[in-house]
Design brief:
Layout: E1 2-6, H1 15-28, E2 33-37, H2 43-47, H3 56-61, E3 71-74, E4 77-80, H4 86-93, H5 97-108, E5 115-119, H6 126-134, E6 137-143, H7 146-166, E7 171-178, H8 185-197, H9 210-214, H10 222-225, H11 230-244, H12 246-249
Parallel strand pairs: 1-5, 1-6, 2-4, 2-5, 6-7
Antiparallel strand pairs: 3-4
Helix pairs in contact: 1-11, 5-6
């Protein structure tokens, strides 16, 4: 089972959009997928109307089965949504390593899926640390602008730090250029820089597309909202690339995939 955290310390880089549409794309490829919303703002949950009477907070803090907390969005796709109470949990975890370990263990107990996709908050949160420890892969959406590139560098350093401190082995398997506009010179310049730095793990860019912005209002993935859009085309390509990365996961674990800028 592949456990992938979609992570970037910087907000506004298309992280939630990527988590939603990658999960939906994998489900359409006959992969059984669980999408977990670990952002207290609950944007993923709202975007897919994935609310449930019991949610991620209940799963992490009580002895309930994950099947009691998920919502079924369609064939092969489930969501473990969240509400505002997740912010309370963040406060309760602060400075308590034993509680962080409990959260990590609960996340690791989730099985019977081909993929678990974690959508994370754009912060240095304690929950994010737990997700890093519960994941075996990270993908980093990166806006094609100067601040987006800087946020990616900081996120890679964070992952390396957690790996070192906790003797973990999270691999960065994909850098995803997002919000790409070929008419914009800075977008083209940053994409060129990213291709030079992350040449072995960079995906094709996700082009800026109004349909990607509209889909959450209708509580749909881009594939359900407009399967003929550029957004659907780009996330279809990304889905195939992520599936093809399976060969990298099977490589010698001593061979690092992460790249430091």
């Amino acid at each position: 089972m592949r456990r992938i955290c979609v992570i970037n310390q910087k907000g506004g880089v298309g992280k939630t959009t990527t988590a939603i549409n990658l999960a939906a794309g994998l489900a359409l490829k006959d992969k059984k997928v669980l999408l977990i919303d670990l952002d207290p703002q609950g944007s993923t949950t709202f975007s897919l109307d994935g609310s449930n009477s019991q949610d991620l907070y209940d799963y992490l803090t009580s002895n309930v089965n994950v099947s009691e907390c998920v919502s079924h969005l369609g064939k092969n796709l489930d969501i473990l949504g969240t509400k505002e109470n997740l912010a309370q949990m963040e406060q309760a975890l602060a400075g308590d390593k034993s509680k962080i370990e409990v959260v990590t263990k609960r996340l690791n107990k989730i099985v019977n899926y081909d993929y678990v996709i974690f959508d994370t908050a754009p912060s240095l949160s304690i929950l994010n640390k737990s997700v890093i420890l519960a994941s075996n892969e990270a993908i980093i959406p990166t806006a094609t602008d100067v601040l987006g590139l800087r946020g990616t560098t900081n996120t890679i350093k964070l992952i390396e730090q957690v790996n070192k401190e906790e003797e973990h082995d999270l691999k960065i398997t994909k850098i995803i250029p997002t919000l790409f506009d070929k008419r914009n010179n800075i977008c083209k310049k940053i994409l060129e820089i990213m291709n030079n730095i992350y040449y072995d793990i960079i995906s094709d860019p996700i082009r800026i597309n109004s349909k990607l912005k509209e889909a959450p209002e209708h509580h749909k993935s881009i594939f359900t909202y407009d399967k003929r859009s550029r957004g659907a085309e780009d996330y279809q390509k990304l889905t195939v690339q992520v599936i093809n990365d399976e060969r990298l996961i099977r490589k010698d674990k001593s061979e690092p995939l992460a790249v430091t800028a």
